[in-house]
Design a protein that fits this description.
Length: 263
């Protein structure tokens, strides 16, 4: 009896929070696809399959120094990034040089963000950027202030856990990182996309010849996309969370945490 009463009290306490943060009920089987680092296979391999299944996705863009972004056998060109935008995918910010936010002051961080924003506009991305991904999944309180001043609504990190919009600050959205050797973990994650919880995937190259430690073989990526399609998952970009979540209310009501986890 006491346990049931405690549960009822907990649920009643959640109702006002739910009403303020959740614009409309979250569908079951909701998955957000995000792709990091502007890898060439995002355009050649991933995008055609996403189009086939009418899946949304976010592509987080950075210009790496090692290996150099000038190597177009490994990285997207800005023309290809513009084409991804015209295909309907979200183009989002991963900083110019993929520098961890805890290693930059606010001035440098702003300049890193503005560079990607300006290049995107130059290549036809007209919508303001509202999504950010932390390089190396590393967060810092100073970055939060910059993101808020610049109007970003969502920021994705790592953590390998589901996203709960009633608990996780919109600048601290956790994700599961796909790799060649964690197939079972990803399938287990898909099963947790229910009861108001969202599964966010971080995908690097499919394959990734620039950063082999986060490689996802294309055959495995195909397998995941086929599974999501055949099992009627709703697959969206990070920006599409606006349909369901009032990010500004969530910023006010939820606490922010930091992490320093490498991919």
């Amino acid at each position: 009896m006491k346990r049931n009463f405690a549960l009822l009290c907990f649920l009643l306490c959640l109702q006002p929070l739910f009403a303020q943060i959740i614009k409309k009920p979250l569908p079951g089987k909701l998955v957000v696809l995000t792709f990091d680092d502007a890898i060439i296979s995002h355009y050649t391999n991933a995008a055609p399959l996403l189009e086939k299944y009418h899946f949304g996705a976010t592509f987080f863009i950075a210009e790496f120094n090692d290996p150099s972004f000038s190597d177009k056998t490994k990285y997207l060109s800005w023309e290809q990034i513009g084409k991804l935008n015209h295909m309907g995918f979200e183009i989002a910010n991963h900083t110019r040089n993929h520098i961890h936010v805890n290693k930059m002051d606010s001035t440098r961080f702003v300049s890193e963000l503005i560079y990607i924003e300006d290049k995107a506009k130059q290549y036809g991305v007209k919508k303001d950027m509202i999504s950010f991904a932390y390089p190396g999944y590393t967060t810092h309180p100073s970055a939060v202030q910059v993101l808020r001043k610049k109007g970003y609504l969502f920021a994705r990190t790592g953590g390998d856990r589901v996203y709960d919009p009633l608990k996780d600050h919109p600048y601290y959205i956790p994700s599961f990182s796909t790799k060649a050797d964690n197939r079972e973990q990803i399938y287990a994650a898909f099963q947790r996309a229910e009861k108001g919880k969202i599964v966010v995937l971080t995908i690097h190259g499919v394959p990734d010849e620039a950063h082999a430690w986060v490689n996802t073989p294309f055959s495995l990526f195909q397998e995941y996309m086929n599974y999501l399609h055949e099992n009627n998952f709703k697959v969206i970009a990070l920006r599409d969370l606006q349909q369901y979540i009032d990010a500004r209310e969530a910023m006010t009501l939820l606490s922010y945490k930091t992490t320093n986890a490498e991919p």
